[in-house]
């Protein structure tokens, strides 16, 4: 029925006591909003955005790399020895991680989907899965690129007390002992000297 009259919608959607069609429609709309599904789509919702497709492609490459480097070695590997995976999949994982961070920054500014807030749940779940595999299962880690700035700032902060105490020592007026000569008659020793001069 192509009629859009209120009576038609009322008779179709709210005719039963549970209003199952309305309830299901609200549930799916709330799920769509909570999962930020629109953030994975283009503006006109015709399909996945280019960045989402690129991310999912890199995600699949990462999982393929993990699987490829584990084949035939699962028996020989101890639970904490996955050096081949870490070494061979490092480049793919780094690209995926960098792309995810870029998508997060772009999404906060209103990227391709023109919806701000979080990335869609598919992208976030895919990245969570990959990070768990990389860090917990394979015990791999990325080299920290912020090592030099952290060391520099830490050294500067540790050096501050030395600078403070040194500057306060150099710039403070040091109390010098000033001897005040008494204005009374000199002691007996000086009187003896005077008598010796006269005699």
TrEMBL record:
Work out whether the entry's keyword set contains Transmembrane. yes
- Please tell me one Gene Ontology term that the record gives under cellular component: cytosol
InterPro entries from the entry? Osteopetrosis-assoc_TM_1
Q: Which gene encodes it?
A: Ostm1
Q: Which UniProt keywords apply?
A: Membrane, Transmembrane, Transmembrane helix
Transmembrane ranges?
Answer: 148-170
Cite the Pfam families for this sequence. OSTMP1
The identity of this protein, by name, is OSTM1 protein
Q: Does the keyword Transmembrane apply?
A: yes
């Amino acid at each position: 029925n192509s009629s859009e009259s209120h009576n038609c919608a009322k008779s179709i959607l709210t005719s039963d006591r549970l209003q199952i069609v309305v309830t299901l429609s609200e549930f799916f709309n709330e799920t769509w909003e909570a999962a930020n599904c629109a953030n994975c789509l283009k503006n006109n919702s015709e399909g996945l955005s280019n960045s989402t497709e690129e991310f999912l492609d890199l995600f699949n490459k990462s999982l393929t790399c993990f699987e490829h480097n584990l084949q035939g070695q699962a028996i020989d590997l101890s639970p904490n020895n996955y050096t081949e995976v870490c070494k061979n999949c490092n480049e793919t994982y780094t690209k995926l991680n960098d792309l995810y961070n870029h998508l997060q920054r772009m999404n906060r500014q209103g990227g391709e989907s023109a919806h701000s807030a979080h990335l869609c749940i598919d992208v976030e779940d895919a990245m969570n899965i990959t990070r768990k595999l990389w860090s917990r299962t394979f015990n791999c880690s990325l080299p920290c690129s912020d090592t030099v700035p952290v060391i520099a700032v830490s050294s500067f902060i540790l050096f501050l007390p030395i600078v403070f105490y040194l500057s306060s020592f150099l710039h403070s007026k040091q109390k010098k002992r000033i001897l005040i000569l008494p204005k009374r008659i000199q002691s007996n020793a000086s009187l003896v000297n005077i008598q010796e001069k006269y005699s």
